[in-house]
Write a structure and sequence with these properties.
Helix content is 53%, strand content 8%. It is built from 9 helices and 5 strands; from the N terminus they run E-E-H-H-E-E-E-H-H-H-H-H-H-H.
């Protein structure tokens, strides 16, 4: 079966029976209106590096462990595994999907890097509500927002908030869970002009 992946239409020629053993997706996609599409499947919205990992798993039964890679390659591999997860979610390969998310988490930890809004937005664009990877990246975003040593704040994720109400809800839920039983101070108890519109050096004439 011929498979074309990504905008570059990178080409693989793979064994149909092997693909069909792991997922019915390719068999379904190779037919249109009951007619054979010459054994061709196009995954033009997916990442060739992610599909390369999928092919490795199909033929070797495993993918690389990010811990075995040099430091300068860990983040790129983690990013590829994140895209592999999205691909596996699309084509219904749960076993490899679980492997991918574990390698993504480990790669982020070992590289000391986390996905930013540019990486998170496509996840919310392409995965269903309550997806485990949505839970993971929303918790990462919540931690970045609440970390006093982080350069990220809520505004850093504006493109995600604007594109997905689900992301906003997930982040707020993650912050609430992460804060435990600690209650924020009551803003209605503030004394003074905290919410007035005037300069800090101006004398407040209210009250």
């Amino acid at each position: 079966m011929d498979v074309y992946v990504g905008e570059s239409r990178r080409h693989w020629c793979l064994h149909r029976d092997l693909l069909g053993y792991h997922t019915p997706f390719f068999q379904t996609q190779s037919h249109l209106d009951g007619k054979q599409k010459f054994g061709k499947v196009e995954l033009l919205d997916d990442d060739p590096h992610a599909f390369e990992l999928l092919v490795k798993w199909l033929y070797q039964g495993k993918i690389d462990d990010v811990s075995d890679l040099p430091m300068e390659k860990k983040w790129d591999y983690a990013d590829a595994c994140q895209k592999l997860y999205v691909l596996c979610d699309k084509i219904k390969m749960p076993q490899l999907k679980n492997i991918a998310i574990d390698q993504f988490r480990k790669g982020c930890h070992e590289a000391g890097l986390v996905p930013g809004p540019e990486e998170i937005k496509p996840i919310y664009d392409t995965t269903p509500p309550r997806s485990p990877i949505r839970k993971l990246v929303s918790q990462i975003a919540a931690r970045q927002i609440m970390d006093p040593d982080s350069d990220s704040d809520a505004g850093s994720y504006r493109i995600c908030f604007e594109a997905s109400p689900d992301f906003a809800i997930d982040v707020i839920d993650a912050i609430r869970q992460g804060s435990g039983t600690k209650l924020f101070h009551d803003p209605t108890e503030e004394v003074g002009c905290f919410y007035h519109e005037h300069g800090t050096s101006q004398l407040c004439k209210v009250g």
